[in-house]
Amino acid sequence: NACTIQPDTDTPFAEMMVDLYNKSALSLMISIGHRVGLFDALDRAGPSTSQRLAEHADLDERYVREWLGAMTTGRIVAHDPTTNTFWLPKDHADLLTRRSAEGNLAVTAQFIPVLAGVEDEIVACFRDGGGVPYASFPRFHDVMAEESDQTVVAALAEHILPLAPGLTYRLQQGIDVLDAGCGRGHAMLELAARYPSSRFLGVDLSEAAVRYANDEAQRRGRPNVTFEVLDLTAFETDRRFDLITSFDAIHDQADPAGMLRGIATSLRKDGVYLAQDIAGASRIGDNMDAPLAPFIYTISCLHCMTVSLAQGGAGLGAAWGEQLALRMLHEAGFERVAAHRLEHDIMNVYYVAQRT
Fold first, then answer.
1. How much is the pTM?
2. Which residues of 130-160 are buried (b: 16+ CB within 10 A; e: fewer)?
3. Where are the alpha helices (DSSP H) in the chain?
């Protein structure tokens, strides 16, 4: 039998579910709009018909028209039915276009279809255990790099590096830096350009990401940065560093505790470990009012936790929480640890750790 939900007369939970389905659908359409450049095109073009917008964006009009239907009924794009034109209000454009100085939230919407692509494999894991490997996420590094450009790369000089007193001066003078879990290497490429006297090394499990990073370093002419493929499961190296960073990289490792121990022993005596990881509490009940809690647990289940389990790892997950992170940092050998929140990044916490 067909089931009809009537939000005006049904329960508040039914209304919430209808709202949920609408917003879930909008997440997919926001991701598509970002990828094909429709938000940027609409922002540049001003009030436009679907045909004019399609021509401006060099896209198929029929698909643009249907996308505008979702965006308009979702109250994201404004519409004048008398002229059949559409436009992006300025306050919406400030958060959904590539020109945004406040952070492009459309970037984050891309995680939804990326994660949905492994749903069948995750369902099998629910039944049989195990995990889904990194190789099953072909676009994840693309999206993470774009997200990291906003939360990390753009904030490095002004907000992140100053969390460790004196670090900027040391970088100017010349030190050895390691980025553990570097992805496509955008953070190290940025630092290598700013601090030519310092030496930078990025390591990551993904061969494709490391290949991209090395190609980019060569293209930009950055001889002071290199990238290597390295499995961080049992992190160990004879090399020593003055600064080690990890950006959103600890919680999805197979052996996060071992990686933290390896980082601690790889630092020189006065070395600094600077880490960004997911904000939140270690207990589910303490995250009830966290603004992105369902999103974080979902990303964890469909990526962070499962890629660790696929390696036979701990499956720590993105929602490991600040309390557990602080405990693990101390157990790894860091005697001095400070946690910082930055105004531009509501999703993450930044740790500054030293051995003595």
1. 0.90
2. ebbebebbeebbbbbbbbbbbbbbbbbeebb
3. 12-35, 38-45, 50-57, 61-73, 90-96, 105-109, 111-116, 119-128, 140-151, 167-173, 186-194, 207-220, 256-266, 293-299, 305-310, 322-331
Range in 70-74, 199-203, 257-261, 343-347 with the lowest mean pLDDT: 343-347
Instruction: Report strand pairing: 267-278 vs 241-247.
Output: parallel
Q: How far apart are CA 250 and CA 225, in angstroms?
A: 22
- How do residues 81-116 score in pLDDT, each as one tens digit? 999 999 999 999 999 999 986 689 999 999 999 999
Query: What is the rounded CA–CA span in Å between residue 87 and residue 16?
Result: 28
Under 8 Å between Cβ of 106 and 43: no
Q: Is 56 helix (H, G, I), strand (E, B) or coil?
A: helix
The residue to which tokens 């279809």 are assigned: 113
Given a contact cutoff of 8 angstroms between Cβ atoms, the answer to whether 309 and 131 are in contact is yes
